[in-house]
Amino acid sequence: MTPDGAAAATLRELDRDRYFASLFLPQPSRAPIQALYAFSAEIAAVRERAHEPAPGEIRLRWWADALEGEGHGDVRGNPLAAALLDAIAADQLPTAPLVKLIEARRFDLYQDPMPDLASFEGYAGETVSVLYQLATMVLAGGPTEAGDAAGHLGVAQALVGHLRAFGYNAAHGRIFLPWSILAAHTVREADIFAGRSSSGLEAARRQICELAAEHLNKAKAAVRALPRLLRPAFVAGPVLGAQLRTLSAVADPFALPPDMSDFDKLARMARARWLGW
Questions:
Q1: Is residue 53 located within the same domain as residue 40?
Q2: Given Cys at both, which of 1, 35, 53, 215 links 83, Cβ 3.0 to 4.6 Å?
Q3: Tens of pLDDT, residues 20-52
Q4: φ, ψ (nearest 5 deg) of residue 67
Q5: What is the distance between the alpha carbons of residues 260 and 234, in angstroms, rounded to a whole number?
Q6: 13-43: b or e for each residue (b if 16 or more CB lie within 10 Å)?
Q7: Are the C-beta atoms of residues 60 and 106 closer than 8 Å to each other?
Q8: In angstroms, rounded to a whole number, what is the distance separating the alpha carbons of residues 70 and 85?
């Protein structure tokens, strides 16, 4: 399998929604952006694969060394690493944001709660928004003014993702949503880890849903102001909006909300690609 094929396969396996979104990117931009997305998915998967922080740290260090030209052994023997390095070279992409993505993902390896909203937004910016920004650079062939669209959609996506995964993370002793918001509503860690809901948790969840909606609305306005060339990078927006509406209607914060079908996701993305978000 070619490096590009390996990147597409990794993305399809680890992050199906981003894989769907990548299908609406024009060629020849699709392959390098899929490599970026697959790299991000691989880094996000380290937490589940490593089980313990130490091996996770080693794996993250391997990727950082590969990006910084200090890799040990045949880095290009890893097809995903080869695809990523090819994308960086072909599109003259900066490696520093990708190294920061790796560093931000170190948080995932430990059990500390996300302290506050500012910390969450920084984490989302370095792990999600950066992908939108780099995707627009590939589409444009250089730097773009897509920071607002990338920033707001990245935070919205991270909030929606962690609202959806709240029960799963709680069962594993992790709190990714901003603890300051939960604490302000008198939510206790012990109740979260025990899977016990409360009026405080419900209120905190509503507030976080409202924050996600605010970021989505700002992202939508920012995307509409972008050149048409860049808008295919943001076709996931309508899907996130639909997922957020479902979240808002589900009473149990620990339950995994029902997701839409693959066909529905593709249809929403197609509409965003051709008719606008």
A1: yes
A2: 35
A3: 999 999 999 999 999 999 999 999 999 999 989
A4: -70, -30
A5: 18
A6: ebbebbbbbbebbeeebbbbbbbbbbbbbbb
A7: yes
A8: 13
Q: Is 44 exposed, middle or buried (0-12, 13-18, 19+ CB in 10 A)?
A: middle
For residue range 85-137, list pLDDT tens digits in order: 999 999 999 999 999 999 999 999 999 999 999 999 999 999 999 999 999 99
pTM equals 0.95
**Six-digit token string for 140:** 């444009």
Based on the structure, what is the number of domains in the chain? 2
**Phi, psi for residue 94 in degrees, rounded to 5:** -75, 140
For the stretch 52-96, pLDDT in tens is: 999 999 999 999 999 998 765 688 899 999 999 999 999 999 999
Q: 116 and 236: one domain? A: yes
